[in-house]
From TrEMBL:
GO terms for molecular function: 3-oxoacyl-[acyl-carrier-protein] reductase (NADPH) activity. Signal peptide: none annotated. Keywords: Oxidoreductase. InterPro entries: NAD(P)-bd_dom_sf, SDR, SDR_fam. The lineage of its organism: Bacteria, Bacillati, Bacillota, Bacilli, Bacillales. Its EC number is 1.1.1.100. It holds the Pfam family adh_short_C2. This is 3-oxoacyl-[acyl-carrier protein] reductase.
Amino acid sequence: MELNLEGKVAVITGSSKGIGYYTAMQLVKEGAKVVLCARGEKQLQVAASCIKNETGEDVLFIPTDITKEKDCKRLIERTVEHYGRIDIVINNAGTASANPFEAVSGEVWQSDLDLKVFGAINCSKYAVPHMRKVGGGAIVNVTAVMAKTPPASSLPTTVSRAAGLALTKAMSKDLGKDNIRVNSVCIGLIRSDQIENRWKSEASELSWEDYSRKVGQSIPLGRVGDTQEAANVITFLVSDAASYVTGTSVNIDGGSGHAL
C-alpha cells in the first residue's frame, strides 16, 4: 500500500511523548517532514533526538502552549517559514480529567476546553489557508472513545472530546471542497506513562504482557493497546491511502466502546 507521504509536512501537537511522539516517528519513517510541539522544551529536545537517532532525519520542534491562540498562529507560521508548506495537522494535545459534574470548577472547565477544543480549532484555522495553497491536506483530531457514550464522573474530558467529534464532522463538510480531509480517532485504553506507572507500583512482578492482559480482561481483544497501534491508524488517515475518507471517527479501543 502506497501512503505517499514523501515531502509532506506535518504538525503534531502534544508530540513530545505518547501517541503524538509515536505518530511523529512513523510519519518520519514514511518520508514526511515533522514538526513537534508541546509545552516543555526539554522533553521536545529529547523526542527530536530520539527520532534523529532512529531515522537519521532531523525534525523541527517548537515549544507551544496551544491554549493560547497567538502560540497556535506562531506554530503554523514558523512551520511554513521553515518547510515552505503544511499538509497535515494532528491535534493530539490533551490530558485526562475525569470527575463528577459537581466537582468540576469553572477554571477546570475552561482549561480543558481551551486545550482540547480551542487548541484544535486555532491550530487548524491557521493551517487551512496553507493547505489550500498546496491543493489540500489532512487533519486528524485525537479524541476519546468515552466521548461517544460518556460514563458517570467523566467530566470535563468526555464533553470536550465530544465537542472534538462535532468539530471533526462540521469541518469535514466545510473543507471537503478544498480537498482537505478531517477525521478523528477515538482512543480507548492505550499504553501510556500513567498505565506504566500503575503497572510498576501495583504489579511490578508481572511482565508488561501479563499486566496488559490482566488490566484488559474486559476488553474484547483482551489487552491494553500499544501506542504504535494508535500511531499506525493516524498515519493511515493522513495518507493518500485514505484519500476518500473524511468526516468519520475510528475507534482505537480493542472493541471496548459501546458505539460505532
